[in-house]
Amino acid sequence: MLVAVLAGIIAAVIAVCIVGVVLVLVSRYRDQNASAATDLSMLDTVGVGADEDGDIRVKSGEAAASKPSDGLSKRFGALGALAGAIFAVLGAKLWSMQVMDSSAYSSEAERNLYTTVSTPAPRGSIFDRQGRVLVTNRASQTVLAESEVADSYDTIRRLSSVLGLPVGVVRQRLADTSHGAQSQRVVASDARLRDVAFIAEHADAFPGVSVETRTMRIYPNAALGAHVLGYTGSPTEDELSKTVEGRVIDSNDILGKGGIEAFYDDVLAGEKGQRNVMVDASGNVVSVTSETAPTQGSDIYLTIDAAVQYAADKALASLIAPGGDIGSGRGVAGSVVALDARDGSIVAMASYPTFDPSNFTDGIPQDIWDLYNTEESHAPMLNRVINGQYAAASTFKAFTSMAGLEYGFATPQSAWTCTGSWDGFNTGAPQKCWDHSGHGTLDLHGGIVHSCDVVFYEIAKAFFDHGPAGTGELSNTALQEYLEKYNFGKATGVDLKNESAGRVPTPEWKAEHWRNVPSEAAWRGGDYTNMIIGQGDILVTPLQIAAGYCGIATGRIYKPHLLKEVRNAAGDVAMAFEPEVLAEPEVNQEHLEYVRDSLRGMIVEDSKMPKVFGDEGLEAAGKSGTAEHTDRADDAWFVAYAPYDDPKYVVACMIEQGKQGSSVAAPIVAKVLGAAMRADSGEEGTVGRIAGSSGHSSVLNFAADSDRED
Question: Distance between CA 637 and CA 553 in Å, rounded?
Fold first, then answer.
C-alpha cells in the first residue's frame, strides 16, 4: 500500500513538472509576439503589383515583409511540447505500474486466475437427554456440473434423459449463478442411485458432470417435538444481507428456520469446505487446484425426553383430532409443557396442530404452505407454548391468593359467602361465580379448591378500596407488582426465538390502550375483579404458567431451557447449560405452605381428580382453569406438580375451546406428568412417530358454553 502511494506521488510530481515547463514555454512565446510590432501591408506594397497591361507581377529582389505561415513553426513546437508532456505522464504511470506496483498487480492477476468456492457442511445432529436421535442427516446423491456444460447441448440432452428432467429445467439450473459464477451447478438433488451410477459408468458422455454425496436433514419420528426442533431451509434475501459474526452466509447454505435448528444454527452449521479452482479469461473452470472437505457441525443434546415428548404429542393429537381432522375431538388447538422444577429443564414441549419438518427439508411445498395458512388449519406452525397468549383463568388464583395473604386481605381464618352472584361495587350489573347456584360459606382454602370466584372478587375489592380510589394505602399497581414477582408480563428467556411476553394490565397500559375511547380508559374496580381470577386483559403463555408454578412448588423459578450440552466431532462436551435462577419471590413461607396445601386439596377433594392422577401413580397438587369467551367456547386449563411434598416436575396444559379444565386438560397433564416421573426413575418409555396435522378442520369455533367447570 505504501509503495503504491509513493509511486502515485512520484508520477504526479513528474507530470506537474512537465506541465509547468510547457506552460512557461507557451508564456514566453506569447510575450515575444506581443512585444514585436506587426506590420500590415497591402499586397502591392510587398513587391506584388500589376504592369501596364494589368498582369500580376512580383518585383525582382523584393520579398514580403511577413507571411501567415511564419508562426506555424512555433505553434508546432508548443504542440510537440504538450505531446511530450502527455507521453511523459503516461510513461511515468507505466513505470509506476511496471516497477513500483508490479507485485500488487501481479497479486491481483493471481486472484483473478484462482477462485475459491465453498461447499456446504453437514449439520450436527440433535439428540434427547438420553441420547436418542431426534434429528440427523441422511446421504443424498447430488448431480453437479461445471459452468461450461451449459454450452454443450448434447450433455444437457443426456442429463435430461437420465434424470427425467425437462431440457429447459436442466438448462435453467446450469445457468444459475446464485452460488457463485465458478461454483458447480446443482442439476439434481437426492437423485436416484441408478441414475448417478449410470452417469459414473459413462463419464465420457458427461464431461464436466460429477456426483457428490451430500446430506439432507431427516426427522426419524416425523412431527415428534416439531415446534421444539424446528426445520431447515435455504436463506432468504434478508438472511443473505445480514452480517453474522464469524460466519459468511452463502446462497447454497442451509439455515435453521425455527426451534432449536434456528436458535443454535451457528453450533449446528459446521465449517464449509473450500474448493480452489483455476479459471480462464471467460471465467470457466480450467482445473481444481486444491480442495478442503467440510467439517460437520457440533451435536446438540436437549433436555427433552423423547418418551415424555411422545406422551405429550400423542395426548394432544388424540384429544383434538382423533379422526385426523380438527373437530373430530375436543377443542381446536392446544399445548402442553413439562418443566423440571429443580433446574428449569424442559422435558416436553408440545403444540397442536403440528407439522412434519421432513416436508420442509428441500423448501416448503407450495400446497402445504397454502394449506397451513388457511383459517381452518388453526396455525400448525405456531408454537403455542411460547407464543400462545391466553387469559390465565383460575390457574392464576394460586398467585392472587398469595397476594391477598401478603396484604392481609385474606387470612386462614377469613370466610366469605358465595350466592353465585356478586355486586360488591353496587354497579347494578352483578358479576357471576362460575357456579351460578353458589358455593355457600368458604374460607380461602375452599375458595382455591372449589375455585370460587366470589372469594376472589372480595379480595380484589380490598385491593381497590385500599388504593388511590379508597384509603390510598396502596398504589393502584400493588397487585400487579406482586404478580411480577413470579415473572408474569416478561419473557422467560427460553432458548427459542421470538418468545411472547404476555401482559399484566396496569392503569397506564389501559389509558394508552383506550386513548381513543376516553370512556373506557379509566381504571375501575372491575379491572381488579377480572384480573384476580385470570380474566380481562391479563395474558400469559403456558410456559409462563408452568414456570410460575415452579415458584409455588419450590419457591424458586429457574430460567426454562432446552439445551443440555453441545458435543464436538470427537464426542467431547464443548458446552453445557448451567441452571439460572430467574426469580426467587420473597414471600411468607406460612402463606406459601397454605396455598400449597390448598392446591393439594384441589386434587384429593375433587370428585374426579383422585382417579385421574391416581391411575398414573401420582401424588400431585394443581389447579384447573376455564377461560371464558363470549363468541366461542371457553379455553380449558390445568397445571399440576408432583410429588406434591417433594416437587420434581410441573406440567401445564391449555386446550383452546376445550370448555372444561378439569375434564379436558387434567387427563393430559396427568399422562405427561406420569411419563415424566417414570422417565425420572429410569424407565425408558415408548417413542414413536407423530403425524403432522392434516391442515383440515370440520369446525372453526365451537359454540360458546355457559356451563363453566372449574
Answer: 18
Distance CA(395)–CA(387), nearest Å, equals 18
How large is the average pLDDT for residues 551-562?
98
Q: What are the φ/ψ torsions at residue 678 (nearest 5 degrees)?
A: -70, -40
Of the candidates 616, 666, 614, the residue with the CA atom closest to the CA atom of residue 640? 666
Angle between helices 589-604 and 397-406 (to 10 degrees): 150
DSSP state of 550: H
Split at pLDDT 50, 70, 90, the class of 672 is very high
CB atoms under 10 Å from CB of 98, counted, come to 10
Alpha-helical runs (H) found in 126-236: 153-163, 167-174, 193-201, 226-229
For Cα atoms 291, 293, 296, give the angle at the middle one, nearest 5 degrees: 160
156: nearest Cα among 142, 173, 181: 173
Q: In what order do the strands lie in the sheet with 285-292?
A: 114-119, 273-279, 285-292
**Pure H helices in 466-532:** 478-484, 507-513, 518-521, 525-532
Q: CB neighbours of 644 closer than 8 A, spacing ≥ 6?
A: 596, 599, 600, 603, 619, 620, 621
pLDDT score at 14: 64
User: Which position has the grid cell 513538472?
Assistant: 17
According to the model, what pLDDT value does residue 386 have?
98
Beta bridge partners of 638: 624, 653
| Separation CA 286–CA 208 (nearest Å) | 10
pLDDT band (50, 70, 90) for residue 495 = very high
324 phi and psi angles, rounded to 5 deg: 105, -35
What cell does 75 get? 505553434
CB under 8 A, 24+ apart: contacts of 377-382? 377/353, 377/693, 377/695, 377/696, 377/697, 378/326, 378/332, 378/333, 378/353, 378/693, 378/697, 379/333, 379/353, 380/353, 380/354, 380/355, 380/692, 380/693, 380/695, 381/258, 381/355, 382/351
Tell me what pLDDT residue 423 has: 95
Residue 395 in contact with residue 626, Cβ under 8 Å?
A: no
- Characterize the bridge pairing of strands 299-302 and 126-127: parallel
pLDDT at 399 over 70: yes
pTM metric for this prediction:
0.80
Reported as a single tens digit per residue, the pLDDT across 618-650 is 999 999 999 999 888 999 999 999 999 999 999
Q: Which helix (H) or strand (E) holds 133?
A: strand 133-145
Q: How would residue 215 be classed by pLDDT, with cut points 50, 70 and 90? A: confident
Rounded to whole angstroms, the Cα distance separating 218 from 358 reads: 6
* Mean pLDDT, the chain, whole residue set: 86
Who's near 311: CB < 8 A, 6+ residues apart?
A: 348, 671, 672, 674, 675, 685
Q: How many C-beta atoms surround the C-beta of residue 466 within 10 A?
A: 18
Least confident of 21-25, 210-214, 306-310, 582-586: 21-25
Distance CA 334, CA 218 (A): 26
Q: Which distant-in-sequence residues (6+ apart) come within 8 Å of 206 by Cβ?
A: 155, 158, 159, 199
Are 137 and 123 within 8 A, CB to CB?
yes
Residues of the chain with pLDDT > 90: what percent?
61
pLDDT value of position 7: 55
List Cβ neighbours of 396 (8 Å cut-off, separation of 6 or more).
532, 533, 534, 538, 540, 625
Question: 3-class SS at 654?
Answer: strand
CA-to-CA distance for 474 and 469, rounded, in angstroms? 10
